[in-house]
Amino acid sequence: MSAQIRMAVLPACLLAALASPAAFADAGMGLTQLDAVEVTGQKPDDYAAGSTDSATRLELTPRETPQSVSVITRAQMDDFGLDNINEVLANTTGVVVEQVETDRVYFTARGFDITNFQRDGFGLPLPYGIQNGDLDTALYERIEVLRGANGLLSSTGNPSATVNFVRKRPGSELDGGVRLGLGSWDQRRLDVDVGGPLNDSGSVRGRAVAAWQEGDSHLDRYSLEKKVVYGVIEADLGPATTLAIGVSHQDNAPTGNLWGALPLFFTDGTPTDYDVSTSTSADWSHWDSSDTRAFVELAHALDNGWTIKAAVNHEEMEEESELFYVYGTPDPVTGLGLFAYPSAYGGRFKALSADVFATGPMRLGGRDHDVVVGASWADGNNRELSWYGNDVGTPLAPGQAFDGSYPKPSFDAYSDGSDFDYGRESFYATVRWNLADRFKLITGLNHTRVDTEGFSYGESNTVDESRTTPFAGAVLDLGPAWSVYASYGEIFSQQSEVNADNRLVGPVEGSNAEIGLKGEWFDGGLNASLAVFRADQDNLAEYAGFDTGTGRSYYAGVDARSQGVELDFAGRLGEHWHVAGGYTVLELEAADGSDARTYVPRQLLRLSAVVDLTAVPGLSLGANLRWQSAIDREAVAYDDLGTATPLRIQQSSYALLGLMANYDINERWSATLNLDNVTDEKYLTSLYWEQGYYGAPRGVTVSVGYRF
C-alpha cells in the first residue's frame, strides 16, 4: 500500500469531519470496499502502470502502447522515500542519472541524453539538456518514462526517452494527510497533501500540496533547504466541460555546493582516492534557484464521442549563485597542480506554450478507429550572466582545494553570458487503425519548425530548422495475456555549432526501432515487456578543434548507434506482493565501430519489491536494488614538464541496496523506516565528465504519518 496514502492524508479529512461529521460519514459509506482494503494495509494495484497517453495522446494501457514505457507510481515513491527526480529516475528501468555536481545533473537512456521533460504531456526541452537544482516529487501522482524517440509529441530531442511528470489532481472525496521524516545528516522533511470537493455538489474541487526539507549532507559543507507549494482547482463548467487551473513553486537554497567536482587522477596517471565526504566547494558557495509553473486546461466532450482539449503552460526558472571551480591535475607527492576558478552566475529561463488537440472515433470499413489531431506552439527566452574576478587561475596550496578556505573574491573583472529566444510550432496527427479484433496499427506524422536567435557565451545561437517526423507502431494480441509489437519513430534537434568552414553543422537526427513482447495479468494489475531496440543518433556536434584565427571552437557531426535488450515489469504478484523493475543490456558504438560514450553503463538492473506480511497485520517489508556494470572514459594526465600520460578513468560495477519497513499502527498512524546503501558501497556518481565525486554512504530515514 502506498506510504503517501498511509501517511500523508490529514488536514482535508479533519476539516471535513469537524465541519460536517454526518456528511463525512455518508461520504465514507460509498467507499466501503476501499476502507476495508486500507485497514488490511493493501492496495493491490498501487505499483501498476495504468493507462498513459505519453506516446500518442491516446489513453492506452502499457500492453496497447507499441513502445517501452515505465511508470513510477506514487506508491513506489512513498515506499522508498523517492523525494526528488534523481532518486526516481535512478530506480527506473534503463535510465542513468549522471550526477555530475550536487545541483546539476544529466540523464541518459539507451546511451543518449534525455532532454525532453513534460508536465501532464506538455513541455519543452531543457536549455542545454541539463536539470539544475533539486526537483522535488511531492506534487506528482506518477512519473512516466517513454523510452525511444517520441517524435509524435516531442519532435525535438534525442532518441533516448521522454519523462512525463503527471501532477496530482483533486478527487471526488475529501482526503488529506501529513508526513514528518528525520534522517541521517540532520535531514528533516514535512509533507502535507490536501484535496477534495470545494462545494456541496462537488462540481468544484481543489488540491493543495506543500513540502519542506532541510539538512546537511555526507559531503563537507553541503546543505540544502527546499520549499515546494502546489495548488490546483478543477471545475465542471457543464456536464461535458472541465476547467483546471494550477500553479506550483519551488525554492532551492543549497550552500557549499559543488561546481565541478574532484580530480580523478594524479599527474603520473594513477587514480585519486579521497574520502566520500571530500568536496571542492568554498565556504561561501551557494546556488539558489526557483521554479514556477502555471497551467490552464480546458476539456470538452462532444456528443459524437470526440473530445477537444486545450492547455496553456507557463514556466519560469531563475538562478543566482556564487561558485568555486577547481581545475588542474594534482601531483601525488606535493598536492600542487590545482587552480581556482571562481564565478558569480545569474540566469532566467522563461517559456510559454500552448497545445490544442481533438481525439475521437472514426468509422471506416465497418470498424471504429481512434484519431488524434493537434497543434502546439511555444516561445521562450534564456538569459545568463556570469561574472569573474582577477584571481581566475590562482594556484591552490596543498589541501586548499578541499577545505573550503579559499577567500571569496570580487566578481568584477569581466563578464560573459547568453541571451537567445527560441520558438517551436508543431502540427501532429495520429490514427490507431482497428484492423482486426486482435491487431492494431498506429500511424502518425509530426511537422515541426524550430527557430533560435541570439548568442550563448560568445557563440552565435541562431538556427531555423523544419522537419516532418513519422511514427508507426503495431500491436498483435496473441491471447488474453500476451501481445507482440513493433514500432519506429524519428526525432531531431537544432544545433548552433559550426564546423571548420564556419558553417552550421546542421540538426542532429535520431530514430528508434524496436520489437517486443508484452504481458498483462490480474486485470492490468501486473504488466511486463521485453524489447529489442536500436537507436541511432546522426550528426551530433562534437568538439573537433580550436581556430586560433577566429578564437572559436569548431565541431564535426558524428554518428552513434545504440542497440540492446530491455526487460521491464511493474504491478502486483498475488494479493500481497508489489514489484517493479527491469534489466537493460546495450551496445553503443560510433560510426567506425568503436565503443562510444563509455561512461554509460552497458548493463543496468533495477528491482523494487514490497510484501504485506499476513502474519503481522499492518507490517510491510521491502527492498530495492540498483546495479550497474563497470564504466570508464579516456583522459590524459600532464606533469609539470608537460609530459602526457594517457589513461582510463574507471568505476567498477557496483550495487546499491535499500531496505524499508512500514507498520500501520492503526487506521490513522503509521511509521516507516528506510535504509539506503545498506552495504556502505563507495562509488563515483558519474564519469560523464573527467571529474566526479562520491555518492552517499549508508543512511537512514524514519518517518511518521497520520491519516484521518
Please tell me about this protein's structure.
It is built from six helices and 36 strands. Helix 2 (11-19) packs across helix 3. The longest helix is centred in the N-terminal third of the chain and has 9 residues, at 11-19.
Task: Note the main attributes of this structure.
708 residues; mainly beta; 22-stranded antiparallel barrel; 4-stranded mixed β-sheet
How large is the radius of gyration?
26 Å
- Assess the beta-strand content as a share of residues: over 45%
Helical content (DSSP H or I, runs of 4+) = under 10%
**Biggest sheet overview:** 22 strands, antiparallel, barrel
Mean pLDDT: 89
The residue ranges in which pLDDT falls below 50 over 5 or more consecutive positions are: 1-45
The tally of helices reads 6
Multimerization status:
single chain
Element layout with pairings:
Layout: H1 3-7, E1 8-9, H2 11-19, H3 21-29, H4 32-39, E2 69-73, H5 74-79, H6 85-90, E3 95-101, E4 104-109, E5 112-113, E6 116-119, E7 131-132, E8 140-147, E9 161-167, E10 175-183, E11 187-197, E12 204-216, E13 223-238, E14 241-255, E15 262-263, E16 286-301, E17 307-328, E18 338-364, E19 367-388, E20 414-436, E21 439-456, E22 459-460, E23 463-477, E24 482-493, E25 508-521, E26 526-547, E27 552-573, E28 577-590, E29 603-612, E30 619-628, E31 631-638, E32 644-651, E33 654-664, E34 669-676, E35 691-692, E36 699-707
Parallel strand pairs: 1-36, 6-9
Antiparallel strand pairs: 2-8, 3-4, 4-5, 4-7, 8-9, 10-11, 10-36, 11-12, 12-13, 13-14, 14-16, 15-35, 16-17, 17-18, 18-19, 19-20, 20-21, 21-22, 21-23, 23-24, 24-25, 25-26, 26-27, 27-28, 28-29, 29-30, 30-33, 31-32, 33-34, 34-36
